[in-house]
Batch of 2 targets.
Target 1
Amino acid sequence: MRLSRYFLPVLKETPAEAQIVSHRYMLRAGLIKQAAAGIYSWLPLGLRVLRNIERIVDEEQQLAGHIPLLMPTLQSADLWRESGRYDVYGDEMLRIKDRQGRDLLYGPTNEEMITDIFRSYVSSYRDLPLTLYHIQWKFRDEMRPRFGVMRGREFLMKDGYSFDVDRDSALVAYDRHMVSYLRTYERIGLQAIPMRADSGPIGGEYTHEFLVLAETGESEVFYDSAILDLKLADRPVNYADTDQLKSIVAEWTAPYARTDETHDAALFANVPSDRQRSSRGIEVGQIFYFGTKYSEAMNAMVTNSEGKRVPAEMGSHGIGVSRLLGAIIEANHDDKGIIWPEGVTPFHCGIVNLRQGDIETDAACVALHDGLVALGLDPLYDDRDERAGAKFATMDLIGLPWRITVGPKGLKNGVVELTSRRTGETEELPPEQAVERIARIYAGL
RNA sequence: CGGGGCGUAGCGCAGCCUGGUAGCGCAUCUGUUUUGGGAACAGAGGGUCGCAGGUUCGAAUCCUGCCGCCCCGACCA
């Protein structure tokens, strides 16, 4: 993509309303534009990142054997009356009337709708286990939206719902989700720690929140630093192997890690003192086994192997997709701008032409650009007639992890510069090798 | 929803207290010179001062109401 042909409205000055770094950079780098309190338009660059995250989440869910579908944003109030939540949910639910005076709502979550789909078609344990999920916009009319997409009213979320015939099998679904979430965050380039969460009035210990450590996080968290060393890395995961799932979950839930909601000072004291940590965290996902709350209320029954009709054992599991952008930036930035992890970067690398208009330099940039595109990569070529400083500032702000700098001086020696946004390290090498290097970096992703 | 603050050019702001027909920086456009880390000079365009009403000869400025946005709190992926 040529920058001169793209739509990238970067801001030199920080908009007054943005308080935290991720919000400021999202506005300045032209990722989003606020449409109303807690509601945002996704500009081209922001949309690219959002789609990348969505794609990774989607791929990992399907690897885990979960089935995608798509439910609407608008829902009829009837299902919510059936579950009893229409009156309970309160002002956070955006309620709408259509022209016939029927009560609709903009879905804040989808337990009712998925339970209705499930009960319409599934009646036997032979069709289980089943996990259905979608990635869809939600609306929760927060009292106080803030921090940009970290705490918007409209947000994109992957929400999945597991259905099983009994508790044991539902807990396998729970483990499967935890493993798939660990893989997802790792691919995105984030360290998200599963922490024992508060299960609320339903009770039970089977809920974990995934938190990204960041000063601007809204939750206070306490953990054993040993958990930071855990990595799935290239470990092969077989989702059919419930023992493997269980052992991975055991590994990640062994070190102490809790939010202030569930924090237990006595237990925390057992952690060796040099490993006791407390900090702030951003919640980017939650898994939750809640049993038969909705299946009983909405009569979602299945026949088990003994011929008995039992309510389905359910869990709901969410990843805040749009919120992840904010979390990624909070965890990956410096004073010049964003530093995207390779897994989600909107463009694989930037190409900076230091002498736009110089025939040889222009030709070298185009050759680099086309060479990368031929390998299936997506470079952003800054072909504006600007000074080097302005071009570098833009590249630093929008945070592409790699930059190739092309100028007449280097070309005289047959080299271009390859610079890492994260480390700032620069290496001179022939253009063809720069292309190969970029290709190799992205090969496994 | 309670408390506080803000709304003036695309962005960041001054002017308001003490009323007299709108200004600065950046950005934009034209031209010239420039070009290895946010260029210089010259010129130009762009605003019903959030909306409505009131006071006044006259309102960005004073008064009233409304709308929007931000911050702190209680609630949340």
Note: The CA atoms of residues 175 and 249 of chain A lie 6 Å apart.
Target 2
Amino acid sequence: MAERKVRVRFAPSPTGPLHIGGVRTALYNYLFAKQHGGDLIFRIEDTDSTRFVPGAEDYIIEAFNWLGIKFDEGVSFGGDHGPYRQSERRDIYRKYVKVLLDNDKAYIAFDTPEELDKKRAEIENFQYDASTRGMMRNSLTLDKAEVDAMIAEGTPYVVRFKIEPGRDVVVNDLIRGEVTINSSILDDKVLYKSADDLPTYHLANIVDDHLMEVSHVIRGEEWLPSAPLHVLLYEAFGWADTMPQFAHLPLLLKPIGNGKLSKRDGDKLGFPVFPLEWHDPKSGAISSGYREKGYLPEAVINFLALLGWNPGNDLEIMSLEEMVQLFDLSKCSKAGAKFDYVKAAWFNHQYLIQQPDIAWAPAFDKVLKENGIEATADQEAEVVRMMKLKVIEYVDGLGNKKKRNISFASDLWPLTKFFFVAPTEFDKEDKFIRKNWKENTADEMQQMVTVLAGIEDFSVEGQKAAIDPWAEQTGIKPWNAWRVALVGAGQGPDMYELAAFLGKEETLKRMRFAIENSPL
RNA sequence: GGUCCCUUCGUCUAUCGGUUAGGACGAGAGAUUUUCAUUCUCUAAAGAGGAGUUCGACUCUCCUAGGGACUACCA
């Protein structure tokens, strides 16, 4: 086969938000293109005017922008193979339909949708093909004068592909090998619709891929059954020698139960199936997005890449650049992959903890704001800023070794709220509280309040100097009860550090509150 | 119903005829931590079933079962 430049495309139809499976298909196209120094084309397949959804196109572009998948040409990216929106290519399709018609590869059919429905009801497994087209109203059964007259009158008609039966059509798939289908099971597909004066996917797809010099078609498995039809179309046009190579990707399946991943699964199980939040313009319904859920784009990309492909070894955390190097279509799996959103969260955790301290600040800001911690006056703002830095330090841990169990920025609040808010009640059922707050704990706390109230230096060292001797003398081990008082739960940093952070006043306040509202 | 595709731990997967079938997520146990989290260690967990081919099969072939996709004037 002649060597030619790798050119691949991702061609969604703007019928709504971009499905996460589509994101993966685009990603694989991107990896393949970049690895071979080729081009990635962004084409909009809007040949179904009835399903057009305003805003969908912009949404898709924004999503890829967020994810870091860059296109070389296409809608909004430019290029010299345009236009890249199929609705703007009517004249081109008309021209090529005529070529097929003139060469007896296609014919005109006048059967109305109602007539077809009737046929389907009458005849079991009715299919418009070589065995039935002789009894339908088309340019094969009507004489030419009649056909011309009907066209002149403006009778609606479609153009159908004339499939010769009884031929084994071989599709060479980069992932699945040779797939053979007999042409007799294919129907005479509508190539050009009367309803909206636009071609169907099949025709537009072949014409565009040819004209845009696409070398490889990497798409979802749902297209495999119609791949033989596409091969036949390339042949009918005489383009067989430059026909792209096919690769049909396995589907993304529901995490539980059967079937492919759908929009509703996400809503039901609480994970997004769209990259960005989507507001449906008609129903007003909102579908959650990975970006808004707090996912990092790198994590989404990494997770998605491994659903159906792997580098052949144990490597899991990979950058886009690394994946470009390692990607291999022949290493793609053939079977559908269940969508494991728990592992998606783990990937996000991995990327989140790699972030430097400073990167946490904006996300943390947002979390605090959502929970009502917001400074108004300048002085307060400074205090909150300092607190945040301290808390980020705690969250980040020492030397990046003590990362907290955080998959999303929103996980920060339950982990750090005690820095900002004093306990207001104590859960008597809480295991930690029950274990560490006993009959005489209130008395012991009172003693401790007295000791702490008497010290000047409330630093970690200052506290230790007062508390440690007292603890040793009395035999009281106050730390866990102290934690109950200051945190209200069995979590948080070292107690002296926490107390120093909160300051003497707040520390004593919380202790007195716990004594009065004894969590017994 | 028809056509095609697929089938290794619960999940994602490695293995391209010879392995104690490996890794990761999740689960469980233990150690560390004054708490939690981290970290570390460990454990359980798989070749759908049946025939072949072969000295030898997870790997090749066939059958069965199961799953999936497609079967529109949608993509």
Note: Residues 171 and 227 of chain A are 7 Å apart (CA to CA).
